[in-house]
Amino acid sequence: MDLKKVVEVLIFTSDKPISLEEIANYANIDDLKAVEKIIAELNKSYQQTWRSFCIRKIAGGYQFATNKEFYPIIEKLYKDQKKINISNSAMEVLAIVAYNQPVTRAKVDAIRGVNSQYHLHNLLEVKLIKISGRLKGLGRPILYGTTDKFLKFFGINDIQDLPNLHQIKEIMGYDIAKAQKTHS
Q1: All structural domains of the chain
Q2: Would the pLDDT of 123 be above 50?
């Protein structure tokens, strides 16, 4: 069998991002680098033939995804489907969990200065965060962390792909030099 077709069908039929190891195992390929090369060749082929999709690394695995230029069309298609609406305060809680995980509710509350139980509960309900264990110590408080759904929701492969403070300021158009002069 053509290994490119085997890799392609494994990624296509998987209902979740499929890891290099899983692809290699199912396709009987001994070298993970060979799998990465095949994925790169498939993507190159899709690009050269003007396909509307690609294979993207998401949440630690590989999955077919639509090219970003088609996002506005897809948004129209799915505009009536239930969306995950996240308020600014819930987004703040989510950001605190993402950047400090594993984190306790007490730490989230301390950072925000207000009770965050309601937002933590809602974020658990929509599966953007999960209970990732318990802190060893007095009371053994619950620890929270992000989920693969969080990674998918934000279109990132790994939590390390989150922007750092400097990148956030660039994205927001924040002029660091101007701000430093203002605060001096």
Answers
A1: 3-73 (1.10.10.10), 88-171 (1.10.10.10)
A2: yes
